[in-house]
């Protein structure tokens, strides 16, 4: 059975900490801590909204990103101006790809594999950042959680992707993600999943669900895919 590859975007294809350079001009030596806290709260807010259930509590990824930025500013007492916050939000559309990603996606495309972006981001936001990083030309398109008004790792997200792009067959879907929560969500939905361990310091959650393969970069993905039954 031909596999459909679903690539997480932020943290897997695109480096969300590409904001650090701009942050350094605003908060100095707190830049890395600020970026880390911002990213963590951004994700936490998506988890909370998904757990609350119901479309009435859904707010898109841009709202969660803004809220995470506001929280980091308050927690670290950096007192950013509205102008600085607007500049930081704008950078989210101009984040860099990880170094090996463009060539790796090009090789996968050349091998005839179906590659999709699969993201918590909004359709417009993901399209913008992929275009900026020149990755869009190597992907068939973008699947955004917006259409189901929830967030990964909610089962409805993975089920909707499988219905649209794999004829409803979860066993035909392969998630590629650096986020353990995403990998666990995919496995719970019946998918294959490859974890991208971007740094040796990253550890996988000690759950009963595990990735089918672990790689350090997308350069190793084609070999990992050959090991999937």
The gist of it:
This protein has 229 residues and is of the alpha/beta class.
Would you write up a description of this structure?
- It is a single chain.
- The protein is α/β, with parallel strands linked by helices.
- It folds into 2 domains: about 5-15 and about 95-225, 3-Layer(aba) Sandwich (Rossmann fold); about 15-90, Putative phosphatase, domain 2 (DNA polymerase, domain 1).
- It has helices at about 20-25, 30-50, 60-75, 80-90, 100-110, 125-130, 155-165, 180-190, 220-225, and strands at about 5, 115-120, 140-145, 175, 190-195, 215.
- It has a 6-stranded parallel beta sheet, with helices on both faces.
- Helix 1 (about 20-25) crosses helix 2 and helix 2 crosses helix 3.
- The termini are close together.
- The mean pLDDT is about 95.
């Amino acid at each position: 059975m031909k596999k459909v590859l679903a690539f997480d975007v932020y943290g897997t294809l695109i480096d969300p900490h590409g904001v650090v350079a701009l942050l350094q001009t605003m908060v100095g030596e707190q830049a890395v801590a600020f970026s880390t806290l911002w990213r963590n709260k951004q994700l936490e807010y998506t988890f909370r909204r998904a757990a609350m259930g119901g479309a009435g509590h859904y707010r898109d990824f841009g709202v969660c990103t803004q809220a995470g930025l506001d929280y980091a500013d308050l927690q670290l007492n950096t007192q950013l101006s509205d102008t600085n916050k607007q500049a930081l939000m704008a950078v989210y559309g101009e984040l860099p790809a990880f170094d090996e990603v463009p060539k790796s996606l090009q090789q996968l495309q050349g091998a005839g594999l179906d590659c999709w972006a699969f993201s918590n981001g909004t359709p417009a936001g993901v399209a913008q950042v992929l275009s900026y990083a020149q990755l869009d030309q190597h992907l068939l398109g973008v699947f955004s959680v917006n259409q189901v008004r929830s967030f990964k790792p909610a089962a409805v997200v993975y089920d909707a992707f499988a219905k649209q792009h794999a004829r409803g067959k979860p066993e035909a879907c392969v998630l590629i993600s650096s986020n353990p929560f995403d990998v666990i969500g995919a496995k719970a939905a019946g998918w294959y999943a490859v974890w991208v361990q971007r740094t040796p310091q990253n550890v996988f959650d000690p759950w009963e669900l595990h990735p089918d393969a672990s790689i350090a970069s997308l350069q190793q993905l084609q070999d990992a895919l050959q090991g999937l039954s």
